[in-house]
Amino acid sequence: MRPALTLTLALLLALLLPATDALAQARKDSARHQNHFMSPQSQQRSNQPSLNTNKGTQQWPQDQPRTQLFCDQYARAAAGMRGRVQGGQTGAQLGYGLGYIGTRDHYDALGAAAIAGAIGSSAGAAQDRKFYDFHFGECMIGGRLATTPR
């Protein structure tokens, strides 16, 4: 393996290390994620018509009995579950760019993009799981349910 490619992969792995306080980080990330996807600016960005007819947000009933099925539905909606795709795309783009800088070869850069995309996808899936676990746990203990995008 070339030294530049090794350095690139080491840097990529270092950037994907988990945060120290996972619960506090999950709260911050979840609030940031929800605020971004429910803001008027993010809803106005797309000029293309959407196939989704349920526009807006969903307010979850606070007095609903907290069954596992209800909390599962709430946690999936609150978590968003977009991390795997976003992580894969980000990793592939970063891997290709850094791979091309390091090797100046298109095919080596594609190989780095494939590896980085897989690493980014698994990191995104882990983040999705953290969001889901956090919201599911909050729901099951009777915590306040947040408004989610539809």
Automatic annotation (TrEMBL):
<keyword id="KW-0732">Signal</keyword>
<feature type="compositionally biased region" description="Polar residues">
    <location>
        <begin position="51"/>
        <end position="66"/>
    </location>
</feature>
<feature type="signal peptide">
    <location>
        <begin position="1"/>
        <end position="24"/>
    </location>
</feature>
<feature type="region of interest" description="Disordered">
    <location>
        <begin position="27"/>
        <end position="66"/>
    </location>
</feature>
<feature type="compositionally biased region" description="Low complexity">
    <location>
        <begin position="39"/>
        <end position="50"/>
    </location>
</feature>
<protein>
    <submittedName>
        <fullName>Uncharacterized protein</fullName>
    </submittedName>
</protein>
